[in-house]
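Good morning C.,

I know you're traveling, so I'll keep this short. The sequence:
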Amino acid sequence: MKLSTSIPLLFMLFAVAALPVSAQQQTPLVCLVYTIQDLSPPGSDTGAYEQTLTDAVSAAAGAHGYKLVPASAWRDAAAASQSLDPSRIATQAASLAVARAVSADVAVTGSFVVENDQIYYSIQCWDVAAGKLAAGIQDTTPFNLAFFSQLDESLTTLFPSVRLETNTSPRLVFTSPDEGMEVILSGDVDIGQISGGRVSWPVTEMPPGTKIVVEKRKTGFHTDRQTVTLVTGKEIPLTRLTPLHTTSVELSETVGQLLGVGATLRAYAIPDWLYFYAGAYPWIQPPATVALRAAFHFDNQLGLGGYLFFSPGSWFRIGLAGGAGVIFTAMSTPGFPVYADFYVDVARLSLEFDLPRVAFFLRPEFKYTLGLGTNLLGKGWLMSNGPVVSLGIVLR
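The tokens, ready to paste straight into the viewer:
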């Protein structure tokens, strides 16, 4: 027997709308609803009903006050385990492992078999913390529109019957806007990942009021540690992680060389700490008098730089870099050669003021020209009433 998927979908939307909503808890329980799997014989052509039944179970859980884990979150957690198929969580151990990773309180699994115009279905609610079955339903009924009415009645009784062993135990609730961030307590206690903006943990060993260091990890971000005070009944906010950068671009203006702009590419050997840089600064030197003509300069530079003292995410950082370069100069007056002034960039001391995506800097540069070949500047420090000073912005 085949049913149009549109009919049961509309019917289930109508039926779920009539479900009673349970009294809201101060901190709603988190529920992970896995795909209700079709185990029908090959050729049954009933796979489309997996999503229909899964949506019905999810709607019933939400109507009874549970906070649902997004399907994308638990599938990512399953994929990260490298031993589970995100599309098929077949065992109790696997379902509980993934549920713990996303900080769910309740995990819902289920399956159905359609054969000879009959449907057998089984749905289980698992107490994630205790690792035990908390409630369940199963039945066999004709596979027609009456089935959806019966399923509606069964789901109405399923979720109110869930009793968790941890319901009376105090829990710590950590919150963060960084979805997927792994939270680790002192002593390498991995309590799971931020899902839906939160992760919870039963207080079993550390009494409330204890100060601990929380380690926060997430791919693409710098690992960070934060000291918090354990408080039950209140959410404990965790600060955002700092994105990890492997490249950045800086744009700069040099005092006394304002008819130009500099661009430098940074490639980080240690993200946001140690970098190689390559840059160029073309600029025009206007004539000193109307009788003379302008000169065109092209400053090329390579080097190595890094930050001192302050970590990524700090609002202020000090950087130190050094390298070498060459300034090519072409005169607008005919008959002059192209000059090349090679120099050593002895030190570039950056004072950097950081925002989330950009940083502004002030940088004195101590350059020493070598006087090699056809040059203009000779040998000595490149200064004009002090070192060369650049101001700019770093784009990440």
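Safe travels,
E.
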